[in-house]
Amino acid sequence: MGEILQLLFPERCVGCGHAHALLCKRCSREWGYPITNTIEDVPLISSAFYSESISHIVLKAKENNDRRCRRILANAIASHISETETLIPIPSSPSSIRRRGFDHALLLAEEVVRLTGSSLWHGLRVNRKIQDQTKLNHSARFANLSGAYSFLSGNSGNELPPNVVVIDDLVTTGASMREAIRVIRSEKGAEMLPIKAISACIASHHLPNTISP
To answer: Which residue from 67, 74, 78, 77 is spatially nearest to 22, judged by alpha carbons?
Structure first.
């Protein structure tokens, strides 16, 4: 029955739309190359450069709750994580969660945990209204997120576990990662955290406040 359904309704690549593969060979080749940067002196690792096909995957996972696409992003992140590490996702804004009907950042982090056996510390929140980053220019993105994150009620830096890794689906300017790192490090006892940051993909190899190798 599965073979018949495949003939009648062939799976199409989620990146380019071509049939017969979840991710075709051409789109698959865009993933799996470690791209290294540093942001706020924290190593930042990504698995692919943002492209047209990868944008389709990110948007389908983020806006359509496409589990196949989320799994691709999770695998890209998981390839740089060990089971001894604790993941802190960049938080989704309450307005985004309401509009979508789900928390993409949390679902992505939970999928990475399933793939790696690592642990999840869902401790950051968006503490005020922020604008849609996609509508802002380079410098405005940093201003928009300055002071926008804080710890969830009942959480503090003293409760932070060891081997903290900040994760996100996409790094564009690095504004979200930078703000998350700032908040984590601002807490007493967290001066040396996190140990690294990981994104599934990245828009550029050269970010503000970032030194490329």
So the answer is: 67
- Tens digits of per-residue pLDDT, 95-146? 889 999 999 999 999 999 999 999 999 889 988 777 666 666 667 777 767 7
The pLDDT-based confidence of 156 (bands split at 50, 70, 90) is: low
**What is the SS3 assignment for 3?**
helix
pLDDT of res. 192: 65
H or E segment and range at residue 165: strand 164-171
* Rounded Cα distance, 132 and 30, in Å: 27
pTM for the whole thing?
Answer: 0.86
Q: Show Cβ contacts of residue 172 under 8 Å, excluding neighbours closer than 6 positions.
A: 50, 133, 141, 202, 203, 204
User: What are the tokens at 90?
Assistant: 């960049």
Give the CA distances from residue 40 to residues 52, 55, 92, 202, 212, in Å, rounded to whole numbers and listed in that order: 29, 26, 21, 16, 12
Domain ranges across the chain = 1-29, 31-202
- The CATH classification of domain 31-202, taken from the options 1.10.238, 3.40.50, 3.90.1530, 1.25.40: 3.40.50
Going through 94-163 in order, the beta strands assigned E by DSSP cover: 119-120, 124-126, 149-151
